[in-house]
Design goal:
It is a single chain. With 104 residues, the chain is an all-beta fold. The chain contains no helices and ten strands. Strands 6-3-2-1-7-8 form a six-stranded antiparallel sheet, with no helix packed on it. The chain has a two-stranded antiparallel sheet with strand order 4-5. It is elongated, with a radius of gyration of 16 Å.
Length: 104
């Protein structure tokens, strides 16, 4: 099955503490059905010092389940569902809200 959300896509968070905020997908974890969105779902991790890095509190992004994010419509940036269409013999993603093709 083709991926509805890919790395580099602009997405909107639909539920949780970051509801309504949007960002770019940094990583897709296919086996776990999760995505990492840059700048959203930030968590703090306490790390021990090692030979490579200094210890302390590190803030980083945690993954979000795919069902809790929606693709941002290329036209107005609001959440939309994704469909597929064949254009010139190629399968492309289409925003259901506006009907526009999704880049990438």
């Amino acid at each position: 099955m083709a991926a509805k959300i890919k790395k580099g896509d602009k997405v909107v968070v639909t539920t949780g503490k970051d509801k309504g905020r949007s960002g770019e997908v940094a990583k897709v974890l296919v086996a776990e059905n999760r995505v990492v969105v840059s700048g959203l779902n930030m968590i703090k991790r306490h790390t021990k010092p090692s030979a490579l890095a200094q210890g302390g509190i590190v803030e980083r992004e945690a993954s979000i389940h795919l069902s809790n994010v929606a693709l941002a419509d290329p036209k107005d940036g609001k959440a939309t569902r994704v469909g597929f269409k064949t254009v010139d013999g190629k399968k492309v993603r289409v925003a259901k809200r506006s009907g526009q093709t999704v880049n990438a």
